[in-house]
Amino acid sequence: MQQSSWWEKVKFLINVYKELKKASRPRTVIGFRILAISISCLPFVSWGIIMGFDQIPLLNEIEIAQNQMTLWSALLNSIAFIFGIGLILYDIHLEKNQSRKVARLIINGLPNMQLNFPDNILNTAEKFLAREPVMLSAKSENLDAQVDMYNAESKVNLISRFVTHEGCQKLYVGGLARIPFLIGYGAMLRNISGLSYFDKLHGNGGWRLLDDEDFKIELVYRDEALSPNQKGEIGIALGMSTEVLFEQLPDALKNHTIFIDTTGGVERNKVLNQENLHRLSKTLAEKIDSLSSKSDVKSIHLFLSIQSTLAIEIGRRYQEGTHKDWVIYNYDAKQHCYPWSLRLSGSSLTVESSAD
Predict the structure, then answer these.
(1) Is 182 helix (H, G, I), strand (E, B) or coil?
(2) 147-168 tens-digit pLDDT
């Protein structure tokens, strides 16, 4: 954290306190209530009846008793005030410690897209104390160069060594890249816990966390009883952001691809709830588990039109040694076809020849 003036530090603590109170943190809420009660009692505590009738013994005793009560009330009120402050400061201290264990990761794989980590999704403490953002992927038109970068990052175990090292408890992850690469980077994250996804909205171009209402979107299979082709290839087509069209699939897979729809129809940024995202990826992974268990299936081919966070989350479901190789296709809207794909096998990606 950079050096700052005392006033900046005070403003920082006030902002953290406001966010803790907004989040209904129990210690902060109780501490605030104790402070409110102690402050509201100040006029009564500081007020004492001073009786100046020394010549009357009874009134003099009343004065002594009153002063003693005022002293004890002031003491108890001070203790309550300090205790309330202590609870709030303790919560702020915990928030600061947790923020130091927050990592930030952004995948930037589109050549003409300039991406910076969206700090607006962080709370005040995280903005100041979270680890420096790490950017993955290569912004290149050269497909081989991007694949080489991915394999290099995977080989050195970059995420574990330089992103989630030293007790990381929370990882913000998001970004923009072609679907095959997002799936691949998701596979890199499969052993990482504490992920919080953020997505770029197509409407206003802003970024947001997936913390909206859970609309319980589900996958709907059109036909599950399909067999692989002679090469042992079987496809899965999931159209969520846009529709995946039968006639645009490679000829060898047209009659060997399971089509999946989602409840509620086609829509961009359809899933804005992280728990819903987990359930969707889990359902698809169960289908991949089932296909991988079949001896006549040699590879699983994925045609996915989905938002970036779901692609990453699906990639996290990849199980090396259990799943057959994944071949993930990239759609070209200008050519209306899938000109290339990437094969995910173990911890590496390789470029496949043209789907046609």
Answers:
(1) helix
(2) 999 999 999 999 999 999 888 8
d(CA 200, CA 8): 31
Instruction: Calculate the alpha carbon distances from 246 to 254, 259, 328 in Å.
Output: 6, 9, 16
What's the N-to-C CA distance of the chain in angstroms? 54
What's the token pair of residue 334?
């200008």
**In whole angstroms, what is the distance from residue 341 CA to residue 325 CA?**
12
In three-state secondary structure terms, 187 is helix
* Residue 159 Cα distances to 6, 62, 131, 165, 298, angstroms: 36, 73, 13, 8, 30
The answer for residues whose C-beta is within 8 angstroms of residue 314's C-beta and 6 or more apart is 183, 186, 281, 284, 285, 304, 306
pTM: 0.76
348 phi and psi angles, rounded to 5 deg: -130, 160
